[in-house]
Amino acid sequence: MGLCDALASDYHYPSPRRAALLLARSGVMDLAAAWALVSSGPARMLGLQDRGDLAAGKRADMVIIEKQSERVAATLSGGRVSYMSGDIAARFIG
Hints:
The chain is an alpha+beta fold and about 90 residues long. It is built from 4 helices and 3 strands; from the N terminus they run H-H-H-E-E-E-H. It has 2 domains: about 50 residues, no CATH class; about 35 residues, no CATH class. The chain is globular and about 45 Å long. It starts with 13 loop residues before the first helix and ends with a helix.
């Protein structure tokens, strides 16, 4: 309905990811729109112009989610790997 500009949490870090996935799974919005509420939405609300989406000259923060399990497989912060596990880690290490 366009009534929410951002989803964020300073307490429970898994909550925004879970909220975006629930919005998409329930059909309220597609995953891209739901994910924007936890990525570009908070960045825009806080005036952080160097992050929030993937574009040249921005921080290159990314969360990679496994399709089947919906678990976080890897994260990149400032373009550098900050976390990696499971199959995606095996591809890089193996």
